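Cross-check.
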Amino acid sequence: MTTFKIDAENNITAFTSSEQIAESAGETMFGSRKELAALAEKWPATRLVEIWNGLPGVQPVERFTSRQVAVTRVWKAIQSLEPGDGAQAPRAAAKKPAARKKAPPAARNRAAHTKTARVIALLERPQGATLKAIMRATGWQTHSVRGFISGQLKKKLGLKVASSVREGERVYSIKRRS
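Predicted model, tokenized:
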């Protein structure tokens, strides 16, 4: 059976049960997922994220959906740590994630980098936009563009989208929003 030791910097070390393990200040021992879960109950959720992001070969996360999910994922990941020699999980440089602030509503509405905003900008042009132009701007196929116009723009956003054929090409346009 493998026993694990976690220190204050969230380094996890794996030991075989036959090894002599000395517990020092700031270090905690655990040998099962249940024991890890009991320890994690006392930790802030950010510590679980830091532990996960410090493990080798994992996809970094910003947060977990629950403490239970975090414990389960960490437990599965540390099972691959090699016991003996006090093998530690390599740590990336510990960085505090910057606190993200929500953009004010006006700025969120102006976010021109979304595909929805790009399509609306194309359709608001005086001449509108051809189906091919929308496909180029979004990387979508024809059926996806038509579905987006019908579902997102017309039904969800309530925009009046006009469709016509000009010189053999389908052209979509909307009236300028006030």
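The chain has a mean pLDDT of 81. DSSP finds seven helices and six strands in the chain. Passed to J.P. for a second look.
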